Amino acid sequence: MTNHWSDIQHSDCALIMGANPAENHPISFRWLTKAQEKGGKIVSVDPRFTRTSAKADVYAQLRSGTDIAFMGGMIKYALDNELYHKDYVVNYTNASFILKDTYEFNDGIFSGYDEPTRKYDKTQWAFETDEEGNPVKDMTLKHPRSVFQMMKNHYSRYDADTVCSVTGTPKEDFLKVCEAFCATGAPDKAGTILYAMGTTQHTVGTQNVRAFGMIQLLLGNMGLPGGGLNAMRGESNVQGSTDFGLLYNNLTGYLGAPTMLHPTLEAYNEKETPSAGYWSNKPKFLVSLLKAWYGPNATKDNEFGYQYLPKGNKNYSHINLFSAMYKGELEGAFLFGTNPVVGGPNAGKEKEALGNLKWLVAADLWETESASFWQKEAGSNPSAISTEVFLLPAASSYEKEGSVSNSSRWMQYRWQAIKPKGQSLADLEIIHEMYLHLKDLYKNEKTPAAKPFNALDWNFGKGNHPDIDLVCKEINGYDLTTGKLVPGFGALKDDGTTTSGNWIYSGFYPEEGNNRAKSRDNKDTGGGNYLNWSFAWPANRRILYNRAAADLNGKPWSKKTAIIWWDASQKKWVGNDVPDFVVDRAPTDPGGTNPYTMLKDGVAGLFAGNLNDGPFPEHYEPFESPVANAFSSQDSNPAIQLFDGEFNLKGDYKQFPIVATTYRVSEHWQSGSMTRNQEWLSELVGHMFVEISEELAKEKGIKNKDKVIVSSARGEIEAYAMVTKRFKPYTIQGQKVHHIGMPWHFGYKGFATGDTANRLTPHIGDANTTIPEYKAFLCNVRRAN
Amino acid sequence: MVEINLNRRQFLKLSGATAATLAIVELGFNENEAKAKTKEFKIAKSTVTPTICCFCGVGCGILVHTKDDTVVYTEGDSDNPINEGTLCSKGTTIRQVYTSEKRIEKPLYRAPGSDKWEEKSWDWMYKTIAQRVKDTRDRTFVEKEDGITVNKTEAIASLGGAALDNEETYLLAKLMRGLGVVYLEHQARI
């Protein structure tokens, strides 16, 4: 989230799309309700009339996978009706930049497309530059090749009638949503967008988010209290685990993981460091990380240990990982509190893949479906599966201590309430012990494999239980010349004299005895930002890009949307938050009107040339769709990776004519292992069900509570039919299309059991993130008997 | 109950950066009077520890009441500015994460081809796992590829971590990258 939970109360309009917070983030709704009480509006756009929709002022249905059509229509509405915030767009975005004539868009394809590799040459999506390399601009926005005019042209095709024929939204509802949300383009209004996996789990997931970003920039909502672009995260520390680099492509703090394209530290720095913007400091963050990981073994002479890091040469993300496992290319795997046999896409295939491992280590509180994939009740033949499985009992969140980062980037501390149950142990200790045992095996070896592992600097106290305080300090970082903790990432250097395990968190532990994650002063320090409660990365800042809430002169756009402003007498930025700006850089100084400090040009990108599938979001149909693309002859995203054979089974709409999506219920959590193993929650929602419209039920002769079979190209599951008014048939390009939905929490373990929805979902991912397309696929439904 | 809440709030504020636990009885709460009003006042003499909910990413504060080596009660932390004491159905039942009979309490091992778990000691598990990791890693380790130092193994994967604490994810990332693991993924992708 660029903003935070309690900040939502300042919103004049909250557009909730691809999310259902009333169900899945229930307590967040307190702040939405507060906004509503102050006169703000809630808008819900969802394929299903959800609990969030029930609380909304405006509801519009849309077919799963058509968000870009919807948002493209909203962009056109804002432009046509001149509802955008002109000063903001001209000065704080790249709307004025002139595009080179190599950039083109034609029938669903951007320039630079190479069909055999399904990749774009992105250098063709560039700006005209002057002799000094600065972008050429037209501040009147009238130049035909300005970003503004090119954007206007791109979305001219997204008229309300075409949009609604694709999304299936009643036109009057679509227009009501546009009217309500675009009203926040007024300088004294702020609108927020709240989204979750309904947005990201598509083959166009990244571009869905981009479309949200574009409308927020057009309406001048970024950086404002009550505004922003806010991803509601589904796990208590999925923000933190992402920040700390548990994805193949990132080290900590969003430093890209080295690949074979970066053979040396010098090559990495040259390729990955922009010439301007805050990321120009990247070498300082990477060297400080290397010093944290390799300590005295990281020296100037050995590129600070850069060569110890593994260098990949391909996409190692979840689907590719399971594809490799299925082919027998992997021998061993660790699962830390994760359950892909229920939560992974095409879960039946992922279960089979686990059987091709030699060994599997699972650390969990429960005997999950994944740890017990070899059992008869999993549909497996144990004697035919030779995988060794190690199931390690892990302690729960309050049986240990440590911090977690919520969606708002607030790093809050959990104290230990009770010792771990039975023989279970904290994951911190399990990981530490694993290191110690491996170190013991490698200590006398000098082999190529031993060398990088033995180079790790691992000093977390003596004995089996690691000292968490030492871990915290290593994350924050030290000044090695003084031995003291660094006060923040501004102090980090690229000469090997500082360390920091995760630069974006640097400053949470600025001096001995002051772990700011433990801060519990809940006095409102102004604007509901609670600056002394916990620590928000980066630099305890609560609203990102907050310089953009002030005009060119440093004055708030309005009194109501004020957060920080330039105080000429003190010669610094002051207000209710930590400024997201050099604190003494005056508006009249060079760069003083460039609020997007992380970016090279200092302004936000309405046009973004760095994504794999195009600089403007364009509508493509989901991988499995009941209709052809009405916007171009490209049906699905041309830049997605296609998988082979059994990992790419695709359903045809004639055999599987119904659009399906998955969702969650308030009483269960993710793959269900944490909730289906509890008595009360199991009793509250005890059965797998599929929600179908009254119209579809009638066509199929299905009654409420009947057992039905849902089938897709990947498999079949059984569920109880829940016949509701919450789904309605859609009219898509004149054709009637049914839409169903089902929860994905169920498996065969725990008190509440049921078939796994992900047995139906496809192995296909987004063009940038490879996040699987769980949220739009084709299926069919029939009575079970 | 109002008095209890005020006391608790005052205490947790005072506690600042130090471990925040308390016995309610120490705050001058009249235990006898409470007992007179209710026969089974389960949280009397309980220790209260603040935590953050383990479910979604809202980050609600929860107070865990423990007594006699078990969790007797949990409630929303009214000091936490996000939830101000309120909780959803999952946060409300967080006690059962501890008390559920389904919790595994011992390390379990499944041998190749076997149809059952066997209980093993932690030490045996660590030693055997470390041996398996080393065996796979040493056989599959690639030091150089096309003349470039790559120091990786593509035969070991690590998945998960969104339910771990920050400090745990940090150690996990350090260990796995240190081993040369490139198939490093977690729930943010799925």
Automatic annotation (TrEMBL), chain A:
GO biological process, one term: anaerobic respiration
Domain Molybdopterin dinucleotide-binding stretches: 660-777
Keyword terms of this UniProt record: 4Fe-4S, Iron, Iron-sulfur, Metal-binding, Oxidoreductase, Periplasm
Residue ranges annotated for the Molybdopterin oxidoreductase domain, each copy included: 2-434
One GO cellular component, as annotated: cell envelope
GO MF term list: 4 iron, 4 sulfur cluster binding; electron transfer activity; formate dehydrogenase (cytochrome-c-553) activity; formate dehydrogenase (NAD+) activity; molybdenum ion binding; molybdopterin cofactor binding
Subcellular locations according to the entry: Cell envelope
Signal peptide (UniProt feature, chain positions): none
Cofactor: [4Fe-4S] cluster
Source species, domain of life: Bacteria
CDD domains in the record: MopB_CT_Formate-Dh-Na-like
Pfam family, one: Molybdopterin
Family: Belongs to the prokaryotic molybdopterin-containing oxidoreductase family.
PANTHER family listed in its UniProt record: FORMATE DEHYDROGENASE-O MAJOR SUBUNIT (PTHR43598:SF1), TUNGSTEN-CONTAINING FORMYLMETHANOFURAN DEHYDROGENASE 2 SUBUNIT B (PTHR43598)
Entry protein name: Formate dehydrogenase
From TrEMBL, chain B:
Cellular component, GO annotation: cell envelope
Cellular localisation: Cell envelope
GO biological process terms on file: anaerobic respiration
TM annotation in the entry: none
GO MF term set: 4 iron, 4 sulfur cluster binding; electron transfer activity; molybdenum ion binding; oxidoreductase activity
Stretches assigned to the 4Fe-4S Mo/W bis-MGD-type domain: 46-102
Keywords from the UniProt entry: 4Fe-4S, Iron, Iron-sulfur, Metal-binding, Oxidoreductase
InterPro entries: Mopterin_OxRdtase_4Fe-4S_dom, MopterinOxRdtase_cofactor_BS, TAT_signal, TAT_signal_bac_arc
Protein name, UniProt field: Formate dehydrogenase
Classification lineage: Bacteria, Bacillati, Bacillota, Bacilli, Bacillales
